[in-house]
Design brief:
alpha+beta
């Protein structure tokens, strides 16, 4: 159950418009595979419903991609708040490790 809670905090649902249809996707924030290294990296991923996943390098790039996918301004603010909180949480975990 605890793992399920952590997974829920790793991703957030996002709605976007494509061809006049409202579709769903997800934005995920997780540590990359190099967990054992000292310089832990974070993956920011946008997964639209109709395609594969997009790995992005920064929150700015993520916001631009979401805008291009016609994600509303309010939805982008909600995603940004989630990403910021998740990054703060991962940074806190990093200081403990």
């Amino acid at each position: 159950m605890n793992n399920q809670k952590n997974e829920q905090r790793s991703c957030i649902d996002v709605r976007y418009v494509r061809d006049n249809k409202t579709l769903s996707g997800a934005v995920c924030v997780a540590l990359s595979k190099n967990v054992g290294r000292k310089d832990r990296k974070v993956d920011l991923i946008f997964m639209p419903e109709e395609q594969g996943a997009f790995s992005v390098r920064s929150t700015t790039e993520l916001m631009n991609i979401l805008a291009n996918w016609k994600v509303s301004f309010e939805e982008r603010k909600r995603v940004f708040d989630f990403v910021a909180e998740r990054l703060r949480m991962l940074a806190g975990e990093d200081t403990v490790a």
